[in-house]
Design goal:
One of its GO terms (cellular component) is plasma membrane. By secondary structure, this protein is mainly alpha-helical. It has three domains: 34 residues; 71 residues, Helicase, Ruva Protein, domain 3 (Orthogonal Bundle), CATH 1.10.8.640; 30 residues. 63% of the residues lie in helices and 0% in strands. It has six helices and no strands. Helix 2 crosses helix 3. The protein is flat. The protein starts with 8 loop residues before the first helix and ends with a helix.
Length: 168
């Protein structure tokens, strides 16, 4: 089935969808530009900038939570990058900057928190819960199998019926 323009309905649909996608991309392009980081937030000294990026790559974006502040385009990540660069420009050590961030936001700010009793418990809890559940199920099953369950006593009606059946 062809139209006067020689196009099939499928071809016309593809052209319409393509035009819509291109039209939407023109309107959405300015929003994508907002995700690009501002070069003015970078430090003029390349060594300081490299240190700031290294520190920022160890800090978790509190909005995204699975990205470093260097990789995130969230507003809070931008603010934290600025703070890190201010501390680097003041001449503070990496350790001092990390301590300041941890004091302000807790160990959650670190993408890889230091090994401590808390982190060991946090990572071992699923395994401990699984082992506890398996242990409870095992001992519950063994106790049920080991203790015979006595049947309930016969009622008077059942006793009479049993007596009648045994006489026959």
């Amino acid at each position: 089935m062809s139209h006067s323009t020689g196009q099939t309905p499928r071809t016309r649909l593809r052209r319409i969808v393509t035009a819509l996608v291109l039209g939407l991309s023109v309107f959405l392009a300015p929003a994508l530009v907002l995700a690009v980081d501002d070069p003015s937030e970078m430090l003029p000294d390349t060594k300081q900038e490299a240190r700031a990026e290294a520190i920022g790559s160890q800090l978790r974006c509190l909005v995204c939570q699975n990205e470093s502040i260097e990789d995130s385009s969230a507003g809070l990540a931008r603010d934290l990058r600025r703070v890190v660069r201010e501390h680097v420009a003041k001449g503070e050590t990496d350790h001092q900057i990390m301590d300041w961030m941890v004091a302000r936001y807790g160990n959650f700010i670190r993408l890889s928190p230091p090994l401590s009793v808390g982190t060991i418990l946090l990572w071992s809890m699923p395994v401990l819960a699984l082992l506890l559940g398996l242990g409870l199920a095992f001992f519950s099953y063994r106790r049920r199998a080991a203790t015979p369950v006595a049947p309930p006593p016969l009622s008077e009606e059942e006793k009479a019926r049993l007596a009648k059946l045994t006489k026959e």
